[in-house]
Amino acid sequence: MSESLKNKNVLVTGASQGLGAVIAKVFATAGCHVYVNCARGVENAQTVVDEIVASGGSAEFFQCDISDEQDISLKFQSLKSIDILVNNARINPYSRPPGSSEAEWFAQVFKVNLTGPHLVTLALIEGMKKRHWGRIINISSIQGHIPVPRHMIPYGVAKAGLNELTRCFALEAAPYNVTVNTVSPGMIVTENISKNLTSDEIEERNQRIPLHRGATPEEIAEAVLFVAECGYMTGEIVNVNGGLWMTP
User: Fold this and answer.
1) Rounded to an integer, what is the distance from CA 109 to the centroid of its chain?
2) Which domains does the chain have, with CATH numbers?
3) Residue 241: how many CB atoms within 10 A of its CB?
4) Which own/partner pairs from 109-116 qualify as long-range (CB within 8 Å, at least 24 positions apart)?
């Protein structure tokens, strides 16, 4: 039987839109109090909070740049004890600023997509260990497992590092009843997918997926919820990619 998460405190990073917003709503529906985090998308994040509260859930806005160690140190003091951490915040691999150098872009992607989850986990894991209960779920990507085109290398390498981060913290935290796992999606059909890919590119990818479609954000969020409810799984990478692993 899966564990009840009712009244657990959840922090979802990067939850102002897309997958993060849906994850926040799914945990709120499960009876959790959800901190909806963002660094800059304040209005969108507040909208997510308002929608959760309007639906009878419990949530509040939490602004913090999770890639900034000083910001974490300052703002995490205001949080209640966090039981569940979902490291979802990321830099979109298609949003490279014009004129940025290879080193600048690589460092920027790593700062948010890998350093950030590391810093947030360090900030919260000791409290979980003291309470002998906790769930940490890192949101990775299929691109952390496979070779990617050159423009995607920083993103893919950061996600591969996130998978290793999962395994390292899982081994450390297991004696304290704290699990650490990864959910690794394939293509997700969010509201912003058309900003990253053309309709032809989306269709080409659909044809390579055995289920011939991308995932809905709700499908990935339900997988994240399942991982949080399962107290006997740790150090694992849960791949949710429509069967893409089966293709040669």
Assistant:
1) 15
2) 9-246 (3.40.50.720)
3) 22
4) 109/154, 109/155, 109/158, 110/154, 110/158, 110/161, 111/67, 112/66, 112/67, 113/89, 113/155, 113/158, 113/159, 113/162, 114/158, 114/161, 114/162, 114/165, 115/67, 116/13, 116/66, 116/67, 116/87, 116/89
Rounded to an integer, what distance in angstroms lies between the CA atom of residue 69 and that of residue 199?
39
Q: What is the mean pLDDT of the chain?
A: 95
The angle at the Cα of 58, spanning 55 to 62, to the nearest 5 degrees, equals: 120
- CA–CA separation, 196 vs 139, rounded Å? 19
Give the relative orientation of helices 42-54 and 18-29 as an angle to the nearest 10 degrees: 20
- What is the C-alpha to C-alpha distance for residues 10 and 35, in angstroms, rounded to an integer? 6
pTM of the predicted protein model: 0.96
Q: Which of 24, 70, 16, 56 is nearest to 40 (CA)?
A: 16
Rounded Cα distance between 100 and 12, Å, is 29
Question: What are the tens digits of pLDDT across the range 34-86?
Answer: 999 999 999 999 999 999 999 999 999 999 999 999 999 999 999 989 999 99
Active site positions, annotated: 155
Q: Give the three-state DSSP class for 73.
A: helix
Report the SS3 class of residue 228. Answer: helix
CB-CB contact of 141 with 184 (8 Å): yes
* Euclidean distance between CA atoms 36 and 49, whole angstroms: 7
